[in-house]
Amino acid sequence: xxxxxxxxxxxxxxxxxxxxxxxxxxxxxxxxxxxxxxxxxxxxxxxxxxxxxxxxxxxxxxxxxxxxxxxxxxxxxxxxxxxxxxxxxxxxxxxxxxxxxxxxxxxxxxxxxxxxxxxxxxxxxxxxxxxxxxxxxxxxxxxxxxxxxxxxxxxxxxxxxxxxxxxxxxxxxxxxxxxxxxxxxxxxxxxxxxxxxxxxxxxxxxxxxxxxxxxxxxxxxxxxxxxxxxxxxxxxxxxxxxxxxxxxxxxxxxxxxxxxxxxxxxxxxxxxxxxxxxxxxxxxxxxxxxxxxxxxxxxxxxxxxxxxxxxxxxxxxxxxxxxxxxxxxxxxxxxxxxxxxxxxxxxxxxxxxxxxxxxxxxxxxxxxxxxxxxxxxxxxxxxxxxxxxxxxxxxxxxxxxxxxxxxx
Length: 408
Fold this sequence. Notes:
This protein is an alpha/beta fold. It has 17 helices and 14 strands. Helices cover 36% and strands 15% of the residues. The N and C termini lie far apart (61 Å).
């Protein structure tokens, strides 16, 4: 009797069945955790799985966090959502990561802006289960003993979660600790600048209340991207940025694309003074087509994120980022392009701003030394962010950490 080769369809079916078994075993292990945490990345959003995972977390009372790439796909007003993680992430979300004993990751590559440059600084007490379709991404965890990887098509996650025999763990103590920590500690944003100056975090909060409910928000890169993504609240409209690529000047042409394809909707474009000068000629496109773009310039008269690195690592030598750099008069630029312009120098002026149904440049005058905070500096744990807390407060939920990740 001749043995015919297995068909491609049968091979795919067998592989899918095996993947399902592995995924169900992963969920079984996760259900044994005392301090579980779910992390959603952009991969979950792009696969259409983010809403299903969030619904599942809420149904079982599980806390969850996101990467910056995953954040736009979530209902961020959920009580189960603890914030976005990373070097420039929420202090509170980072504390949850550092205290968890099991983390379930859907579609996040966990790059060095999320874990820091030293993987030992990330979730040292946790078994980390990474679910992703990208085999090459999963390979990088091979040498790390606390990682488990699952090559899985996240488009099937909704079905998996529906059929999986998942028993929600008893995590009342964990949720109480999270709630207590959440109410006791601030964001760290207050240290960005002096009290009398415009705080960019406060500025984003004030402006967000003025957005149309379906407004499209586009952020650029560097300091202004950090300020927006760290402080943007529950706005339900789409949020875009270029992610890890972070090209200066991205947000203006991206906002133009959004406005041309969504002409009935308001488009909010956050950009830095440096980024605007990369694509400043595109203001003619905005003017020519009379696009409804509110261009918010976070004007700190320099390359803020670079200056902060220079302060931390190069003795405050601001060459090419502050020294040798200057900005034009954006009011004259706006006049040349026939675009409405408003200079904003105080919080009171900002609160009185009215967003228009036509193009407008809002020039937010920030102090040149305005900081990004909180921020994880080199060779520190993910939870140990500047501005630094006292030793007791900086250790999440009382865990005893060594002084540096390299000491683990």
